[in-house]
UniProtKB/TrEMBL annotation:
Enzyme Commission code(s) on record: 1.1.1.100
PANTHER family: OXIDOREDUCTASE, SHORT-CHAIN DEHYDROGENASE/REDUCTASE FAMILY (AFU_ORTHOLOGUE AFUA_5G02870), SHORT-CHAIN DEHYDROGENASE_REDUCTASE FAMILY PROTEIN
Protein name, UniProt field: 3-oxoacyl-[acyl-carrier protein] reductase
Similarity annotation: Belongs to the short-chain dehydrogenases/reductases (SDR) family.
UniProt keyword terms in alphabetical order: Oxidoreductase
Length: 246
């Protein structure tokens, strides 16, 4: 097992990528605090602590990280997977409220969770943070203005933290998924569009390797980045995208 008895906080734990990641990390011997807006169906055990929380709320974030520490006694890793999509919208029709909501969930929440978890990692002298951004920050699609900007912020934050935290033995990396077969994918379509046909004609066809990314592709990359095999990897951006970013 590659993550035996290590403790991870996983956000977006009920989503497509998050659920698979929680499962994989448990299989690799980890303890997991699994956070999402709603954690119905995730059962608490000696290895799994499901916590319902809104990660845009500063106090809730402090509380969930503390709960994870109190249950498991350390925090080895933080995986920021939670996120929301943007329905493709011309810039002149994007409301300030929509812009701020997308920035708050996709960029501010990883700032809040990192700020809350880093003190525990500093005390241990080790830790790993992996933030899920998106290949769209390298190759944007029209109309995803706020989403792409939020993911660009995540990459810059991650690299800023990688340099700041290296001396404490804390690694910070990014995974940029390509178009992935989860509930979120259809939410990028513009209003009224035929989601199934767009999945095929726009998203799958945009991947040089010829298939959509699946949650286990992402979970595999996270296991590697959190394992000892990646002990010297920090500040890197992994494109798990079938070549979409080329
Ligand atoms: N699906 C794709 O094509 C794709 C491509 C590139 C990047 N991504 C990114 O991958 C990550 C995972 O996406 P997914 O495809 O699994 O999507 P998903 O919609 O299946 O999962 C996202 C999860 O985040 C949770 N979440 C949203 N707001 C939250 C909040 N305020 N507090 C707590 N939890 C919250 C949701 O409840 C949901 O369970 C996201 O950051 C997304 O932006 C997805």
């Amino acid at each position: 097992m590659r993550l035996e008895n290590e403790v991870f906080v996983v956000t977006g734990a009920k989503g497509g990528m998050g659920k698979e990641t929680v499962k994989r990390f448990l299989e690799e011997g980890a303890f997991v605090a699994a956070i999402d807006l709603n954690v119905d169906g995730l059962e608490e055990s000696d290895r799994l602590l499901p916590i319902a929380a809104d990660l845009t709320d500063e106090d809730e974030v402090e509380k969930v990280i503390r709960m994870a520490y109190e249950k498991f006694g350390r925090i080895d890793g933080l995986l920021n997977i939670a996120g929301i999509a943007q329905s493709a919208t011309p810039i002149e029709e994007v409301s300030l409220a929509d812009w701020e909501k997308i920035m708050r969930v996709n960029a501010t929440a990883p700032f809040l969770t990192s700020r809350a978890a880093v003190p525990y990692m500093k005390k241990q002298g080790s830790g790993v943070i992996v933030n899920i951004a998106s290949i769209s920050m390298v190759r944007p699609r029209p109309g995803l203005n706020a989403y792409v900007a939020s993911k660009g912020a995540v990459v810059s934050l991650s690299q800023a933290l990688a340099i700041e935290l290296a001396e404490y033995g804390i690694r910070v990396n990014v995974v940029n998924p390509g178009p992935a077969d989860t509930n979120m994918l259809g939410q990028f379509a513009s209003e009224g569009a035929d989601v199934d046909s767009i999945k095929e004609t726009i998203f799958r066809k945009s991947v040089p390797m010829g298939r959509l990314i699946i949650p286990s592709d992402i979970a595999n990359s996270l296991v590697y980045l959190c394992s000892k095999e990646a002990a010297i990897v920090t500040g890197s951006v992994f494109n798990i995208d079938g070549g979409r970013g080329i």
